[in-house]
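Treating backbone geometry as a discrete language has practical consequences that deserve illustration. Part of our work consisted of pairing the sequence of a single chain with a tokenised description of its backbone. We regard such an encoding as a compact summary of how the chain folds. The amino acid sequence and the backbone structure tokens for this protein are reproduced below.
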Amino acid sequence: MDLKTLAAKLNSKYPDRNWDQWCQALIWNAIYILCGYVADSQMTTYPTAAAARNASRIESTNAATAPVGAIHYWRYPAEGHVGISLGRGQVLMTGTPDRVPDQLGKNFGVTSVGHYTRVTGNPYLGWSRRNGSNETIIGKLDTGPTKSITVPSVEQWALIQTWLKRLGRYHGPADGVPGINTWKGIQRTVAARAGYTGPIDGVPGPNTYKAMQRYAAAGGGYTGPIDGVLGRNSWRGFIQRLTS
């Protein structure tokens, strides 16, 4: 199963859920879907990410060596934090847009291990092949369509914020850390130039991402599909037009 299909199934199953602070629940549901289970009894439920981590064997603290489907763990005040490796340092997890810039639903999506660790200051504890005693999902997640997912660097985000400020669509610092106000600035930009009609709420989703691709395409810097998957070319085209 590819990431877009998994995200669609999660959004369909829980259409109104705000996933922030539900990190272990997201991973539990992803495993449930990827393994094709039909009954909750087929899985072990853990109350927190920390509890699942304590029941797991940490294989390495080098995030770069985690295979697709491995489970990343962080220390977070009491409950811990957890995400699914997508390879190449990318991870599927819950979090607000400042922590998880590539949103696939309401406060969950794709970020990098480095970005999340840097923004939150939560210590990275390593990765395991399992979430507690639950079945491994290594080999069950197809990352072919996700190869292009790229989180902009701190420098690129700072450039985006600088130009949004010049356009009067963002009034925060150009610190390279995208938050709700940065995304509101992006939404205002694509609403004015790319037919975005969604809310200016700072919570990006597929409609925001498609509008960003239309915006980039209209500037001539992007020729890929309008599919809502922000990859390297989408971001390059968006930044090129924004700064031109």
In short: The CA atoms of residues 221 and 237 lie 4 Å apart. Confidence is low (pLDDT under 50) at residues 145-149. Residues 180-193 form the longest helix (14 residues).
